[in-house]
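Entry for the shared binder. Reason: the reviewer on the internal report wants the predicted structure included alongside the sequence.
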Amino acid sequence: MRTVAIVSLALIAVSTVGCKSKQDQLAEVYAQLDTMNTQYQKDCMLAPVDVIARSQAKCKAERDAMEPASKKFAALQADVAASKH
């Protein structure tokens, strides 16, 4: 019974994800990017110089983590713009 409930919830989650409009997806990805960028700014741009020097690997990892979301955001933006023409 518990397994059935978990599977049902998973199917509902998957089916509702497919129902999001491009605009909703764009807003969601933007929010994710904004959160990641805020953390990156704090860790890698606004920190004292000695902290930044010690955090190069962390900063690179944060930049690398933002790249797929940035590409997805750009693709969604292009899709939304194309659908308006």
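Summary line for the report: The helical segments are 2-17, 22-45, 49-54, 56-83.
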